[in-house]
């Protein structure tokens, strides 16, 4: 069997059903053999970055690794942003790139680039394959590494002559152990007991849940721990959905654009239990002013290097979130008699600092768009948001009650992520309605994938929140950089309805509140993809927000009279 | 020793590119390599590294933890605070070989070239001692280290 067939055969053995890719000189042998493997569906993207984000969206929506093909040099390098996006958010992905033939590696051959070197810091692991016999082992290891422990992208760079070489009989065994890779899964029972005790001993405890809770499907265990111990729960941006937003114990989103009542709770908590999260700077804002009243931090994460990276915990539980929370759920104690005071206080903060927006200037408000959208989707649709104001609005103005329904690029903040990722999510979950919420700036960064949506009639509905500017940057300039609006104007953009039509999909423009409903009705009634260009208030801002460099306590809310 | 300096013993797969992975990670995390030695270990296909790393602005335990995330790193041991023995090798070419280099435990290796194997502090002292005699060329390996037997 040739190396190319080995690659494709190995993917079949791993249960792969779809590949997002783009051919070129260095992966021709694989593409030559692809039609002989009809079980592998291939989606020809229009730019390799699109392939990486589609694979990412597919992986986030299904839990299975997303697969990407690209050629050497420019093809592989076009994946870098997508790999980084997946790496920062711990998403399983396998990128198989063609490399120049072994004989010319290192000689600056045509379309040669040091892909391993260029992607080292944005992959969980990578392989350069120079021997055909290594292909099955490398692919099985890649699947094991990408999908277990703290998931992440793995890159396999295969020289073209190796793809073409005869490799003898194909033998495949699934990898389950590697000497240098032993993800910690089971929690230490002593630490679990201690964590349960600490939770019981706290007067003002708060749990914060991150992406790790969603990745390990620990939402039920989290709910049990929270309810049995009477502990309020907030989530990170990537943790949105890990805890039902309308639950009486819910604190909604935390951090620098989190809700006021979440911020108040974090800043007044005497114990913080962080689960499956990195405690990064978007969560803490100014670190030295974060959670100033906390006497203890408990940190549960599968990655030991997260312990003390940003915040030194008093108790570390290095384990899979689901197993740790399950063990804890049976040990936590009912809340002490005075817990009601803490919860009442939080309710008061919720009343005092609600999420607000204003319609006073007559423009279409993004929140109205999202609220209408939520009414028709409830808890059953997947929302993939881009980056910027649109992302934060989408995170805050939907009442996510289940995990996995809100997808966005949290760690990397990659503009252009949402649309291809939404296509990937829909390919993976054809049973779910998939919506893409994007700003016009981010959307045009990967809009070429409209062709993929049309070619495969992917019924993703695109909700453009078009504010004629790089809104988030414009807001930062207005609020934190002296009001100097510099290079954020996007008034010159394509007519999005015509753009959509040029690609071959239906679209509609909305300027007024009254048009929201009929536009959504049409989008939902139309089979296949649909785009709505919502022309929203160009001055609409995200609130609350913490000024850059300040502590959470300094959060700003919607100005009075706005 | 500066409190941010860590001494690590690391066992790695002897694959092409492992050094680049280790050094790339150290750079990317804002640490800084002071010394690095690498050679075959007793296990076939595996190499033993001794690293002296400045953790920079990071928490010092991050160096070992981040290295441990690399798939090709089999084992990391932070021996900064452990009882260890540590040795490095120095060779120096001199204008004039001083008398009594043996006092330092050094020896004459070839005409005008001396060799010393000692802990890093002694090596530093020895270099100071050699300076007045004119150092033409100097090469040091950086330390290799291991724990003392219990
Ligand atoms: C690839 C990339 N470039 C730049 C940025 C910095 N950035 C963050 S938000 C933003 C504005 C996004 O504008 P738009 O897509 O229109 O969304 P809006 O904030 O207006 O909703 C920019 C430029 C980024 N996150 N990603
Ligand atoms: Mg915009």
Question: Would you mind describing this structure in some detail?
Answer:
The complex is a heterodimer of chains A (562) and B (150). With 562 residues, chain A is of the alpha/beta class. Chain A folds into 3 domains: 162 residues, 3-Layer(aba) Sandwich (Rossmann fold), CATH 3.40.50; 164 residues, Rossmann fold (3-Layer(aba) Sandwich); 184 residues, Thiamin diphosphate (ThDP)-binding fold, Pyr/PP domains (Rossmann fold, 3-Layer(aba) Sandwich). Chain A is 36% helix and 16% strand. Chain A contains 23 helices and 18 strands. Chain A has a 6-stranded parallel sheet with strand order 2-1-3-4-6-5, sandwiched between helices. In chain A, strands 9-8-7-10-11-12 form a 6-stranded parallel sheet, with helices on both faces. A 6-stranded parallel sheet of chain A has the order 14-13-15-16-18-17, sandwiched between helices. In chain A, helix 3 runs parallel beside helix 5, helix 3 packs across helix 18 and helix 11 runs parallel beside helix 14. Chain A starts with a helix and ends in a 27-residue tail after the last strand. Helices cover 20% and strands 43% of the residues of chain B. Chain B is α+β, with helices and mostly antiparallel strands and 150 residues long. The mean pLDDT of chain B is 93. Chain B is elongated and about 50 Å long. Chain B folds into 2 domains: 74 residues, 2-Layer Sandwich (Alpha-Beta Plaits); 64 residues, ACT-like. Chain A, domain 2 (Alpha-Beta Plaits). In chain B, the strands form 2 sheets. In chain B, strands 5, 6, 7, 8 and 9 form a 5-stranded antiparallel sheet that branches. A 4-stranded antiparallel sheet of chain B has the order 2-3-1-4, covered by helices on one side. Chain B contains 3 helices and 9 strands, in the order E-H-E-E-H-E-E-E-E-H-E-E. The chains are: A alpha/beta (562), B alpha+beta (150). Chains A and B meet through loops of A and helix 1, helix 2 and strand 4 of B. The structure holds thiamine diphosphate (TPP) and magnesium ion. The site of thiamine diphosphate has 19 residues of chain A, from helix 17, helix 19 and helix 21.
């Amino acid at each position: 069997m040739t190396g190319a067939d080995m690659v494709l055969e190995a993917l079949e053995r791993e249960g792969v059903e779809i590949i997002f890719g783009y051919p070129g000189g260095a992966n021709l042998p694989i593409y030559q053999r692809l039609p002989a493997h009809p079980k592998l569906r291939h989606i020809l993207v229009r730019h390799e970055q699109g392939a990486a984000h589609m694979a990412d969206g597919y992986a986030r929506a299904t839990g299975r690794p997303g697969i990407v093909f690209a050629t050497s040099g420019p093809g592989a390098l076009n994946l870098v942003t997508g790999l980084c996006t997946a790496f920062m958010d711990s998403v399983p992905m396998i990128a198989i790139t063609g490399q120049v033939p072994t004989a010319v590696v290192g000689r600056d051959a045509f379309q040669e680039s040091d892909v391993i070197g260029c992607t080292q810091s944005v992959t969980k692991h990578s392989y350069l394959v120079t021997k055909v016999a290594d292909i099955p082992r490398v692919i099985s290891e890649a699947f094991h590494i990408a999908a277990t422990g703290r998931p992440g992208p793995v890159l396999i760079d295969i020289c073209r002559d190796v793809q073409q070489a005869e490799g003898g009989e194909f033998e495949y065994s699934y990898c389950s152990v590697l000497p240098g890779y032993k993800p910690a899964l089971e929690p230490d029972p002593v630490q679990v007991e201690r964590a349960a005790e600490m939770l019981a001993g706290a007067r003002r405890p708060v749990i914060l849940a991150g992406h790790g809770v969603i990745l390990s499907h620990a939402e039920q265990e989290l709910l049990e721990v929270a309810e049995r111990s009477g502990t309020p729960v907030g989530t990170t941006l990537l943790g949105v959905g890990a805890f039902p937003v309308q639950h009486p114990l819910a604190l909604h989103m935390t951090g620098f654009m989190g809700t006021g009542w979440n911020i108040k709770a974090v800043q007044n908590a005497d114990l913080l239990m962080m689960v499956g999260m990195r405690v990064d700077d978007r969560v803490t804002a100014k670190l030295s002013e974060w959670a100033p009243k906390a006497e203890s931090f408990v940190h549960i994460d599968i990655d030991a290097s997260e312990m003390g990276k940003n915040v030194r915990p008093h108790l570390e539980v290095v384990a899979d979130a689901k197993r740790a929370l399950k063990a804890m759920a049976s040990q936590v104690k009912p809340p002490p008699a005075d817990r009601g005071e803490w919860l009442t206080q939080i309710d008061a903060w919720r009343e005092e600092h609600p999420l607000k927006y204003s319609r006073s200037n007559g423009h279409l408000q993004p929140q109205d768009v999202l609220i209408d959208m939520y009414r028709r989707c409830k808890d059953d649709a997947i929302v993939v948001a881009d980056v910027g104001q649109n992302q934060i609005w989408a995170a805050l103005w939907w009442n996510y009650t289940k995990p996995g329904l809100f997808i966005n690029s949290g760690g990397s903040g990659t503009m252009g992520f949402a649309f291809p990722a939404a296509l990937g999510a829909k390919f993976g979950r054809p049973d779910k309605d998939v919506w893409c919420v994007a700003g016009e700036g981010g959307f045009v960064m990967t809009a070429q994938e409209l062709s993929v949506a049309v070619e495969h009639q992917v019924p993703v509905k695109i909700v453009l929140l078009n504010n004629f500017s790089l809104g988030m940057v414009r807001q930062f300039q207005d609020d934190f950089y002296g009001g100097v609006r510099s290079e954020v104007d996007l008034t010159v953009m394509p007519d999005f309805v015509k753009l959509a039509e040029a690609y071959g999909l239906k679209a509609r423009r909305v300027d007024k509140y009254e048009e929201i409903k009929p536009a959504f009705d049409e989008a939902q009634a139309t089979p296949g993809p649909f785009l709505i260009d919502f022309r929203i208030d160009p001055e609409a801002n995200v609130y609350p927000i913490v000024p850059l460099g300040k502590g959470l306590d300094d959060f700003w809310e919607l100005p009075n009279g706005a | 020793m500066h409190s941010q300096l860590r001494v690590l013993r690391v066992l790695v797969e002897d694959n092409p590119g492992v050094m680049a992975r280790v050094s790339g990670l150290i750079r990317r995390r804002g640490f800084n390599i002071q010394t690095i030695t690498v050679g075959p270990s007793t296990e076939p296909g595996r190499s033993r590294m001794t690293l002296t790393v400045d953790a920079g602005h990071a928490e010092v335990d991050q160096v070992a933890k981040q290295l441990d995330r690399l798939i090709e790193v089999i084992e990391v041991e932070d021996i900064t605070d452990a009882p260890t023995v540590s040795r490095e090798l120095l060779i120096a070419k001199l204008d004039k070989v001083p008398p009594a280099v043996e006092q330092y435990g050094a020896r004459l290796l070839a005409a005008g070239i001396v060799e010393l194997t000692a802990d890093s502090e002694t090596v530093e002292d020895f270099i100071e001692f050699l300076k007045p005699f004119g150092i033409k060329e100097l090469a040091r390996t950086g330390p290799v280290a291991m724990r003392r037997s219990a």
